[in-house]
Write a structure and sequence with these properties.
alpha+beta, 24% strand, single chain, nine-stranded antiparallel sheet
Length: 785
């Protein structure tokens, strides 16, 4: 954890936090009748710093764990010096239709140095052995994860004694806590050890403490994991790097982990000193005190939103069985569980002072993980954070905003060396060392709008919170820098005379091109939002005028010969193409450029494009499609995609869906599909950015002073009744909605500021002049009682 940032971040988090609603939750538990055999069956806990996967073994327990800054590599600037000298020639070749020659030249002269970025790593395992327990004799086994408390529990009965384990990851204490109990005094005997995922690590034990020190083989990261074992009753001995506890009544184990990482340019910290500081702050704290502190912290976030979609007998089954039966059984409570699981994973993997959630959030058992488990910015990093604002977790996005501060510096070097431009740029990946240059291969790695897309999250954060200090101090400088880059690099298309980006690609297909549709939509949104932010802050009028002038000249969206929204400047879409990326539909979601009210023809064409792409997809792609069908106001089609997602997944054979622990499967596991599903379920119930104040190709976005609510815009017929409370909307609104027989019964909202609020439901519209802090209640005809 980069501790020098914590005071500023905590203060900002407090400023941004909307008052917790503390809604009561229906039972929200993942549970199983047997231990996990596979990693994707284990249950995750995390505190944004340490992540652990709990297998729930009986005589042998494995708790695999990660620390967020254990990566390969070292501080390094990835920019390719002098690459800008070849930019003009690459563009010239692309304009001439010589794509292969352009890609070959770009591979030689325009790519990152080195060509690949670095990888997120495992740390190791906490292993517990119980020599007196004979597995064939145990009964009443159960393991679970309670989303309301963020505590994982396992228990069973052996020879009349109930053995119980409780495990949680505490954000306030910065540790993972394991509590072992037995119902009969003196019945608990076990051996605890730490096993490193890295060669050359040393493990020592003394008194009640085990220390595991090591170094990542490929890089400079050093780490220490430290386990403290505190038994009650019985005896304790340290031997051969392990702790042996005999005939105890109970025991509390506390796991801490730290590295030498301070920031992406500084690795001078001492992990041992950091762990010592952590344990010194815990001195004298009981398990009950640690548990209560953890739950209070966690529930202050989690309990802001409740969702009840009804329950059926299927809800009483173990989680893996519910996934397998979902296509045939009526189990709306599983949808609510999946929705809240995404919120749980966000709180567990992205907290102030830490790193953003990566491709696997915080959890990773491999030192050669898929796609290096880094940050993929042509959809995956952004999708991770789609649900945070609408589901009332704004603090969880702060690690991403801190990363953008770093990326604006490293991306400034890339902008200069690769494009001879001001501002900053991020291509389709970054890592712990904040690489921003194009990686892997020129046909997909040269994609310019990663930083621009992520900058739109800054504006969204302002729209939801209304925090002008955040807009002034954090958001606007980053947005301005991202916009400056494109103000310097947009070029005229020789065929149309309109401005386009390039070289770039439409992720992740079609190869290197000029001016893909997604780029133009993102840049148009970035320019409009930067103009609006500057207007609110009353700064940079000349720069705003420059952006407005450029924005008018950006090539517009186009409808192709199949009635589709074109993915490229040329009308070359294949209606049989069912690629997982739906990049050109960015303007529908997460953007708001294309709406049924402001741009009906483009809306129809975009919908046709999604029809062509089909309903089958990888896990994260289904997450995107759920949101898109919700924006197309088709709740039943959104639910159909959700059904495709809630199906048993496997790595071999490859099958997208959900693993037994509800992790999303690309496959393999990628966490973005979980977050995409949570966002999509919220979009079915509430939308707040359409149709007022949305950007078209010629009109800047509005300042966000007005608010708009669309109630139940895409309610599936599978959810005939329900209740959601605590959702947030753009304009600083908090919303609750109840419905029966598929129709609105009551909606309430309150606003942080006095402002007009437009409400739409079932073709009706009403405008209310809302007063700050006052709650408004609406009936099905939008009348105010």
């Amino acid at each position: 954890m980069d501790t020098h940032k914590v005071p500023r971040l905590v203060a900002l988090a407090l400023a941004l936090t909307l008052a917790p609603a503390a809604f009561a939750q229906a039972p929200l538990t993942l549970w199983y009748r047997q231990p996990a055999n596979l990693w994707v069956e284990a249950l995750p806990v995390g505190n944004g710093h340490l992540g652990a996967m709990i297998f729930g073994g009986i005589a042998h327990e494995r708790i695999q764990f990660n620390e967020q800054t254990v990566w390969t590599g070292e501080p390094h600037h990835y920019a390719h010096k002098g690459a800008y000298q070849y930019l003009g020639k690459i563009r010239e070749l692309l304009f001439a239709g010589k794509q292969k020659e352009a890609e070959d030249l770009a591979m030689r002269e325009f790519m990152s140095v080195p060509i690949r970025q670095k990888a997120y790593q495992a740390v190791g395992d906490l292993l517990l052995d119980f020599p007196d327990i004979r597995e064939p004799e145990i009964t009443s086994y159960r393991r679970d994860l309670d989303l309301d408390t963020a505590v994982s529990t396992m228990q069973f009965v052996f020879q009349g004694v109930t053995y119980r384990r409780e495990i949680f990851a505490s954000y306030p204490a910065k540790v993972v806590v394991v509590r072992l109990t037995a119902s009969k005094p003196g019945s608990l005997s076990f051996e605890a050890g730490l096993k490193s995922a890295h060669e050359g690590s040393t493990v020592t034990s003394s008194g009640g403490t085990i220390s595991m020190s090591g170094k990542v083989e490929d890089g400079v990261i050093q780490f220490e994991a430290r386990l403290q074992v505190n038994p009650e009753g019985g005896t304790l001995a340290a031997r051969d790097g392990k702790i042996i506890v005999t005939a105890a009544d109970s025991a509390t184990l506390i796991l801490a982990g730290s590295t030498n990482f301070k920031n992406y340019e500084d690795v001078s910290a001492d992990p041992r000193e950091r762990n010592q500081t952590t344990f010194s702050t815990l001195h004298g704290k009981s398990f009950d005190a640690l548990r209560a502190q953890h739950i209070a912290d966690y529930q202050s976030l989690f309990r802001r939103v409740s969702l009840d979609l009804g329950s059926t007998p299927a809800a009483s089954l173990p989680t893996a069985e519910r996934i397998a039966l979902f296509a045939k059984a009526n189990d709306p409570a599983l949808v609510a569980l999946l929705f809240q699981y995404g919120r749980y994973l966000m709180i567990a993997s992205s907290r102030p002072g830490g790193q953003p959630a990566n491709l696997q959030g915080l959890w990773n058992e491999s030192n050669n993980p898929p796609w290096d488990s880094k940050y993929t910015d042509n959809i995956n990093t952004e999708m991770n954070y789609w649900p945070v604002e609408e589901t009332a977790l704004p603090e969880c996005q702060l690690p991403l905003f801190d990363a953008l501060q770093d990326l604006s510096a490293s991306g400034g070097r890339t902008a200069l060396e690769h494009y001879g431009a001001n501002g900053w740029v991020l291509h389709h990946n970054f890592d712990l060392w904040r690489g921003t240059a194009p990686i892997n291969a020129s046909n997909h790695g040269i994609w310019q709008t990663g930083g621009a897309w992520l900058s739109t999250h800054l504006w969204e954060h302002y729209l939801f919170t209304g925090d002008r200090q955040f807009l002034r101090d954090t958001a606007y400088p980053l947005m301005k820098g991202a916009a400056q880059f494109f103000a310097d690099t947009l070029v005229k298309d020789p065929r149309t005379g309109l401005l386009i980006t390039g070289p770039s690609n439409s992720p992740e297909q079609g190869g290197l091109v000029m001016g893909p549709t997604m780029d133009r939509q993102i840049v148009r949104a970035l320019f409009g939002e930067t103009i609006a932010a500057g207007q609110i802050l009353n700064v940079d009028s000349d720069f705003r005028s420059r952006l407005a002038n450029l924005r008018k000249q950006i090539a517009p969206n186009q409808v192709g010969r199949y009635g589709q929204l074109q993915e490229w400047m040329e009308d070359k879409d294949d209606p049989k193409n069912e690629h997982r990326h739906v990049s050109h539909l960015w303007g529908v979601y997460p953007g708001s450029e294309i709406t049924p009210y402001g741009t009906p023809d483009l809306f129809k064409a975009a919908r046709q494009s999604l029809v062509f792409r089909g309903d089958a997809a990888t896990g994260w792609s289904m997450g995107w499609k759920i949101n898109l069908w919700a924006r197309f106001l088709d709740g039943d089609h959104a639910y159909k995609i959700l059904q495709n997602l809630i199906t048993p997944a496997s790595d071999k054979p490859a099958h997208a869906g959900l693993f037994a622990n509800l992790f999303d499967a690309h496959p393999p596991f990628q966490i973005d599909g979980n977050f995409g599903a949570t966002a999509g379920i919220a979009e079915m119930l509430l939308q707040s950015d359409d149709p007022y104040g949305t950007p078209t190709s010629l009109t800047p976005v509005q300042t966000g002073d007005a608010a708009f609510l669309h109630l139940l815009p895409a309610l599936p017929s599978a959810f005939p009744e329900g209740d959601v409370r605590g959702l947030r909307a753009r304009g600083g609104l908090e919303v609750a909605i109840a419905w029966q027989d598929g129709k609105l019964v009551k909606a309430t909202f309150n606003s942080k500021e006095s402002k007009p609020v437009k409400i739409r439901y079932a073709g009706r519209e009403k405008e209310i002049q809302a007063k700050a802090g006052q709650t408004y209640e609406l009936g099905p005809t939008l009348t105010v009682p």
